[in-house]
Amino acid sequence: MSSVAAVAIERKRVDDRLNPILVKEVRQALRGRYFRILFALTLSAATLIGLTVVSSAAISGSLERAGQPFFLAIFGVLMAAVHGFVPLSAFLSTSAEWDENTYDLLVISNLKPRQIVNGKLTSALIQALLYYSTFGPFLVFAFLLNGVDLTAIAVMITCSIATCVALSLVGIALSSLATVKIARVILMALFGLGLVAAWGMAFGMSYALTEEPQLLADAAGQSFVAGYLTAMLVASAIAAAIAMARFAHDEENRSTPMRVMCTVVVLAATVWSAWLQSQFGGIETIMVCQATAACVCGLLWLFFLSEPEELGRRVTHHAPRSRVLALLATPFLPGGGRGVLLFSLHALLALLGTLGALAFGSTGPGDRWNALGFVAVIYGYLALYLLLP
Length: 389
Fold this sequence. Notes:
- The protein has 15 helices and no strands.
- It is mostly helical.
C-alpha cells in the first residue's frame, strides 16, 4: 500500500507542475465522445482503405507499384484527422469557455494568457501525436512497398505538423473572438470550410511530392517548402498573439505582442524578397512578398488604429522609464495614434526593404521605380482606407 500511495503522491505532484489548462483539456478530450468516436472511425477508414488498395494491387499483379497509392490513401486520412479533427477540437475547447461561462474566470485567474493558449495548443498537439503514432506503421509499410521517396515523406510529415500547429492556433484565436453563440456557430462553419480547403491543398502537395520527389532537388521546390513553413510559422505566431490578447485582462497590454508580430511579418517579407530576388530575379517576387505582408497585416492595423489612446494601469506600470527607450517603444504601445506611427514605420520598412531586395539582383532603373511605386501605392491605399476613417 505504501508504494501505491507513493506513486499516487508523485502523480499528484507531476499534475501540479503541469499547466492546469493542459491537464484539464487532455482529460476532457480523451474522455469525451468527440475524440474517441473520430479516432476509431479514422483508424477504421485507414485500415479499410489500405486493405482495398493492397488487395486491388495484388489482384492486378502490380503490387510493386502499390507504394504510392497506398501512401496517398493513408496520408490523406491522416491529414483529415490532424488538419481537420484536431483544429476543430481546439476551436470547440475554446468555445466551451464561453458556453460554460468560465472565460471570465480564466481572465481573472493567476494564469497568464500565454499559459492558457499554450495549454490548449499542447492538448491539441497531444491528440495529433496519437494520430501520428497510430498511422506510423501504415506509413512505414507504404515505404517498404517501394515507390515513395524517404525525403519526400519527411518533408510531408514536417509540413503536416506545421500545418496542424497553425490551424489549431487559428481555431483557438477565432473561437476567442466571438462572445455571442450565433457568431461562434458562423465562425465554426467558416472555419470548417477552411479546414476542408486546407486538406485539399495539403493533399495536392502530397500528391505532387509523391509523384515527383525530384522537385525537392531544385531551388524552386526547396524555396516553396521553405516559404510554406515560413507562412505556417507566421500564421501560428499571429494567431497565438491574437488568442493571448483575448485571454488578457482589460488593463493588460493586449496590443504590443501583435504589433511586434506585425513588424516581424514586414521584415520577413523583406528577407524573402531578397532571397527570391537573388535566386530567380524579377521584381514580381518582391511585389508579391510585400503585397502579401500588407494584406496579412491589414486587419491588425485596423485593430491598432481603433484602440483607445489612454494606456491601462498595467501598461503604464510596465512602460520604459528611460526617455530614449520610451520614445523607441512608442509605436509598439496601445493606442490609435501610436498605431498611426506603427503604420508609418511599417511603410518605411517596406520601402527600404524593397530597395535592399533590389540590390540582390540585376535590375534596371525602370524596374526599381516600378517596384518602389507598387509598394508605395499599396501603402497609400491602406492609408486612405485605414488611417483617414
